[in-house]
Amino acid sequence: xxxxxxxxxxxxxxxxxxxxxxxxxxxxxxxxxxxxxxxxxxxxxxxxxxxxxxxxxxxxxxxxxxxxxxxxxxxxxxxxxxxxxxxxxxxxxxxxxxxxxxxxxxxxxxxxxxxxxxxxxxxx
Length: 124
Hints:
Layout lengths: L1 E5 L3 H13 L3 E5 L2 H11 L3 E5 L7 H9 L4 H4 L2 E6 L3 H10 L3 E4 L4 H9 L8
Parallel strand pairs: 1-2, 1-3, 3-4, 4-5
């Protein structure tokens, strides 16, 4: 699978990329919302892993932009939201259109499992 990792922290982005690649997936990275929109259109990833807490276009707004986009292939990409804020963020991510939500610090095995399995938390 092709996975787009959206994370503003360079260290976290590097760790996520390494773990996902080690599990056999191709990884593209973006550090903000604007880079993400361009990367999704250009690369057509199967999965987007997005940190909800980013400057500029935050993860919740980014998820909404993806889900409301004009291209159906982009609108239906699987989205896994990551946050260190817990239950409140989970509910907001689901309402925005995320397929799954994981709380940081995320178990890397659980992240890979979420990438490789179907949606488990999507509402709306």
